[in-house]
Specification:
Layout lengths: L4 H22 L11 H14 L5 H7 L4 H7 L2 H20 L15 E9 L22 E9 L5 E8 L4 H14 L6
Antiparallel strand pairs: 1-2, 2-3
Helix pairs in contact: 1-2, 1-5, 3-4
Length: 188
């Protein structure tokens, strides 16, 4: 399927509304309905950091009509699980929409590819997401390494790992291989 702007818009709409609401409940980010919804949280942080990569968590608290302390309390493990689920949803749509067309690869029953990248995070995330450091005391203090493993022939996402940037690639790859072998199916 050829990706179009309309297709991309529909996927983003679904990921940041319906999928986000469902992931909020499944990851225990939302345990009971409060002022803060999973959709508001995800949209504010993702699109806010796209707009201004140096924005502080406190600036998002103002946008969400929360105290800075309340927002910081929401930035724990369940928030990480929420964003991991949203990323898996988005990648699943993108990768499933583009199965390989290379005849050479069709000889195989599966073609599994993995790749990792490092994403810089605001310095106040360093307690959970230790970066590599650097010459500037704030730059590189917090970062996330993301490893994606997918099957190219049919397109499903097999594994998605988000770890502190200091995690070694071989450790991350071994964990992704284990996840792929022990999962009931592709990551959704």
């Amino acid at each position: 399927m050829l990706a179009t702007v309309a297709t991309l818009a529909a996927v983003l709409q679904a990921v940041f509304t319906t999928a986000c609401r469902q992931a909020g409940r499944l990851t225990d980010f939302i345990r009971r309905q409060r002022h803060l919804t999973a959709e508001d949280f995800a949209q504010t942080l993702v699109f806010g950091w796209i707009d201004d990569p140096k924005a502080s968590v406190e600036s998002f608290a103002v946008r969400l009509d929360l105290s800075a302390q309340a927002l910081h309390q929401r930035m724990g493990g369940s928030a990480q699980d929420l964003f991991k689920a949203l990323l898996a949803q988005a990648l699943g749509h993108i990768l499933a929409a583009r199965p390989t067309r290379l005849k050479l690869l069709r000889r195989f029953t599966a073609v599994v590819v993995e790749d990792s990248t490092i994403l810089s995070l605001p310095a106040d995330c360093a307690a959970d997401w230790r970066g590599h450091g650097g010459s500037d005391h704030k730059a590189g203090k917090a970062a996330m390494k993301v490893l994606v493993r997918w099957e190219l022939l049919t397109g499903p996402l097999l594994s998605l790992s988000c770890t502190p940037a200091v995690t070694a690639d071989p450790t991350l790859a071994a964990r992704a291989a284990y996840d792929s072998e022990h999962a009931a199916g592709p990551v959704r």
